[in-house]
Give the backbone structure.
Amino acid sequence: MAVQRLVLTDFRCYASLRLNIDAPLITLTGANGAGKTNLLEAISFLVPGRGLRAARLTDIARRGGDGAEPVQRWGVAATVDGLDGVYEVGTGVSDEVPVENPRRAVRINGAPARGQAALGERLSALWLTPDMQRLFTEGASGRRRFLDRLVFGFDPAHAGRLKAFERAMRERSSLLQREATNGDAADPAWLDVLEETIVEKGVAIAAARIALIDRLNPACAMGIGPFPSASLALDGVLDGWLNTMPAVEAEDQYRAALVASRGVDQIGRSAVIGPQKSDFAVTHILKNVPAGQCSTGEQKALLISIVLANARLQSLERGAVPILLLDEIAAHLDEGRREALFAEIQALGAQAWMTGTDPSLFVPLSGTAQHFTVANAEVTEQSLGAYAA
């Protein structure tokens, strides 16, 4: 899979930008704050989800200078070589959408798409950013988002399930809170309807996560060169039920638990059981220790290992390698791991977009990579050979 042309309109620091891509590897270098990561984020919106930064739609539009009002719309358009052919893809927020309720629109070959799943049916992308180095030491929500992005590459409908689940959870919580605040009893029939949606979507979400982990574990256990092998698991009550009983019985257990916990959930403002409470657990196989107890360098190496294993699995199962977005990936890798990463990306045949402040780190890719320098939201193509010692 590959981006052949990228066009940005009022996206982050870019008023407008057009890039034509004709190489499998793309390197972007420049000072911090120049706009390199914004380019990766733009590409991340060509697949389902909230993008590389998980940003709010209202925070993405370019902000005007000299006291000018920020624009409300933004757009990302691309020609992509995806599954089953070349497509024209567009996404963003238009002026037609109310500012107080922005929604992300998607167009495929000029026609409106019903949802983001249409993107996942044609294109897949994986990414690593410096912020993700804290993935194993911070809260479980970030780990769940990481796992869900891995699932998107195999099951595009997963994004729609997550959205429907979260909407039903918010409505259930709102009903319970109104009851607590106003003393008006929540309509039990409406609660039943919402909880039925929560059960249906929640079990499907958990099952999709478990199915991916079962398929991905053998690939992760192999390891890749100097990148460590990893063992993956899902830790949660609902996940435990699905691992020990038929899905129908797990649904019955989940439904009964939601009814029984309405009072507790009213106080806690969240359901105590469900996929939103699961944790994605990763273990360094060779050391037999949880990823959270490994060194920072080992944690980064584990993340790279998982992403590469996922890309390899997608290549086998879907017949196409996902686009890789690797932000500041080379800066904190030693020379051996950096060379191994470049070699694996090339062996996979993946289109990889890599950023960094030091262009000399990418000199080994001279002649293979298309290199751009980024400065003050201006992107200029240059040769990596110019940076050779």
